């Protein structure tokens, strides 16, 4: 990755940072969908420079900054993120496209993690799928517990464009060594095999 663009979220008294993340990421997703190829892949990655998990901090939090990366400057220009975030201009600060620094702290990538989910979610789903009562479904999941690693991850509240349902998009960060090959990304800007510079 040779080029990047930073977006800083600016919450206010009436608009919280979590609400802003939801609005920003939905718009980023729409922008990435607009430039996808025939395989539903895009040349732009997302990164969260202030990412923290519960394992290392008191609270999991994605931070206030979103960083977009690309190998070609033209890809970030084609994304035209200013257009997609135009309704949020009071709540975001978008920097100009810049060169990735020659010296970086390391490399990482981000991916969406499908969480094990809360027991209540599984109970409701089982009741619907198996036509069971709440008591029967509760009995089936009596020993179920959400995985600790799932609870430790930061997430962004999203809305599915297909089903119109809300979901929590848990984000997993992984440190990687230099040498990963050039990859494309999904329409959320994720790829677990990517090599994104940290700085």
Automatic annotation (TrEMBL):
Gene Ontology MF terms in the entry: endonuclease activity
Q: Which domain of life is it from?
A: Bacteria
Query: What are the recorded Gene Ontology BP terms?
Result: maintenance of CRISPR repeat elements
What protein name applies here? CRISPR-associated Csy4 family protein
């Amino acid at each position: 990755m040779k080029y990047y663009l930073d977006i800083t979220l600016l919450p206010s008294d009436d608009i919280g940072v979590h609400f802003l993340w939801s609005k920003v990421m939905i718009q980023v997703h729409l922008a990435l969908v607009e430039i996808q190829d025939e395989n539903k892949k895009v040349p732009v990655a997302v990164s969260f420079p202030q990412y923290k998990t519960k394992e290392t901090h008191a609270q999991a939090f994605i931070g206030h900054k979103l960083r977009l990366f690309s190998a070609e400057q033209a890809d970030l220009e084609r994304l035209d993120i200013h257009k997609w975030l135009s309704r949020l201009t009071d709540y975001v600060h978008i920097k100009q496209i810049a060169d990735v620094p020659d010296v970086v702290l390391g490399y990482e990538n981000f991916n969406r993690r499908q969480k094990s989910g809360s027991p209540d979610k599984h109970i409701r789903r089982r009741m619907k799928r198996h036509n069971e009562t709440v008591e029967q479904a509760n009995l089936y999941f009596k020993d179920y517990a959400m995985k600790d690693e799932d609870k430790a991850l930061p997430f962004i509240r999203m809305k599915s464009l297909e089903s119109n349902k809300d979901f929590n998009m848990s984000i997993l960060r992984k440190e990687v060594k230099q040498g990963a090959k050039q990859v494309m990304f999904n329409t959320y800007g994720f790829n677990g095999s990517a090599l994104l510079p940290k700085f």
